[in-house]
Amino acid sequence: MTADDTVAAARPVWLDPLVAALASPDRVRQVVAVRPGVGGRAAAVLVLIGEGERGPEILFVERAATLRTHAGQIAFPGGAADAGDVDLVDTALREAEEEVGVERSGVEILGLLPAAHVAVSGFDVTAVIGWWREPGLARAVDAREVASVPVVAVVDLTDPTRRASVAHPSGYTGPAFEVHGHLIWGLTAHLLDGVLDLARWQRPWDAFRRVPIPARYLTAHPDAAGPDPGGPDAH
Fold it and tell me: Which CATH architecture has domain 3-153?
């Protein structure tokens, strides 16, 4: 048995459909087909999947309430690529370490999604999918940027009573998830919905159910200073 076989054997079997789907170019292209990358500024987010008491779970960040735009919004850890990053996997792992203290040595990369474009910020965002094989303490490293680090069970994310659609004043429409008193929407929800599809974790839900986007996600904070375009996955 090779070292790679040993690592693969350590993964839970419920990851197998996701790993197989991430290896299919046609499958992953479908996730971003409605908003493909256009050559914008490169950014990456980490979709980090762990195993909890209730099965698979996914790590998010709650943006600080004092940020100028999209305060309190739920997102994946991530940000713009730096000149010193080796690649976009390095970007996603660096940002996750800087934002929430995730140690990259405990993350196994399962695959990447093609870049998705975020018109409001001009970013092309690549979602890096990781298996949190050695979970550690995740925390808000910088309270000026991150208010909390929700880790949400997939069984809650796929609960049909928590699923809905949203419409943004700009014309954007897409899926949404009501969890932990928050609404996950925008690119975060779009990527999350795609990962749930790839992993075969979806449950039927009413796509005609509409919920409003909370005003705090749409209103600029008047006291915040400095540029803040809303992050790479603002919506």
Answer: Alpha-Beta Complex (3.90)
SS3 annotation, the chain: CCHHHHHHHHCCHHHHHHHHHHCCHHHHHHHCCCCECCCCEEEEEEEEEEEECCEEEEECEEECCCCCCCCCCEECCEEECCCCCCCHHHHHHHHHHHHHCCCHHHEEEEEECCCEEECCCCEEEEEEEEEECCCCCCCCCCCCCEEECCEEEHHHHCCHHHEEEEECCCCCEEEEEEECCEEECHHHHHHHHHHHHHCCCCCCCCCCCECCCCHHHCCCCCCCCCCCCCCCCCC
User: Tens digits of per-residue pLDDT, 163-195?
Assistant: 999 998 877 789 999 998 899 999 999 999 999
**Ranges of each domain in the chain:** 3-153
Which of 49, 190, 170, 61 is CA-nearest to residue 114?
Answer: 190
Q: How far is CA 118 from CA 44, 48, 156, 206, in A?
A: 12, 21, 27, 26
pTM: 0.89
